[in-house]
Amino acid sequence: MIATALESNGATVYIIGRRLEVIEKAAKENNKFGKIIPLQGDITCRQSLTKLVETIRARHGYIDLLVNNAGIARNLLPSHLPSPLDDPADASPSIKAFQNVLWDTGSPEGFAESFDTNVTAVYFTTVAFLELLHLGNLRRGDLPPVMSLRPPVFNKEPCDNDVSNNRGSSVAHHPLPLTPPSPLTSLPAGLSTTNSTPAAHLPERCIPQPTSQVITISSSGSFRIDARVLSISYTMAKNACTHLGRLLANLLADWGIRSNVLCPGVFPSEMTSTQHLTPALLAQAVPLGRAGAYVNGAVWLVDGGRVGSLASSYH
């Protein structure tokens, strides 16, 4: 869905997955301009991530957007958990059946796999692609915002008073250029800015271009604390995934790289094709009474992350 929308609007989109035949089929079925490009790789493997980055660097040189979309669900709970009401009215309730279901549903390895894909891989995939995201900013002439805090540097001629420190080593002062070097000097050969207009001819007031961005697909399940969750390990991992995406917004801010998180409900996919998530069952849990009626009851906080950095009731 995301890849199709981007490619239909002119973007070149690289889709990554372990099963080449699956992503090749997806590219074939959704390509409009032939710009959805499948690349085989495993985001839980750092060596594979490095190889993917180098492949895209050689082909494209930069990226503007990274979408962390991979996710898995393990340790699926049954639709009905044993309850004290299941025991006969004249019998003392036993918690053993309930305990056994929680104990036997999945394994510690399933917990680890959930966090490996839903959290750890999101972090290392983002880190692996940081330089290409940075080059996407430099291509547009977007310097890291903290550079504006640097005091201006003026030419300084050497003089006799510029002498050594108390260990006797001299410090040479070389004349500096009147203007700082272009950020584009660090771009790969052949990669240039989309706007080559000299600064002197730019309008006084320009609308700033959007900077590079990381979008992480988490889940509405990351906020659930009720007893009817599909998987405890999935819910916990997606909660951590949501937290990571918000943390990255602050971690990457000095570099002008944005981080946002989408927390969708259940959408049709290979992962959601289970007896627990049929359209009829989903419709029962949606206030409008039909599956997919998701633009309802939502609060869209769009303030650049300001409220999230202040004392507030926003979580």
From TrEMBL:
This is NAD(P)-binding protein. It comes from Suillus luteus UH-Slu-Lm8-n1. InterPro entries: NAD(P)-bd_dom_sf, SDR_fam, Sec_Metab_Biosynth_SDR. Belongs to the short-chain dehydrogenases/reductases (SDR) family. It holds the Pfam family adh_short_C2. Residues 158-181 are annotated as: Disordered. One of its GO terms (molecular function) is oxidoreductase activity. Keywords: NADP, Oxidoreductase.
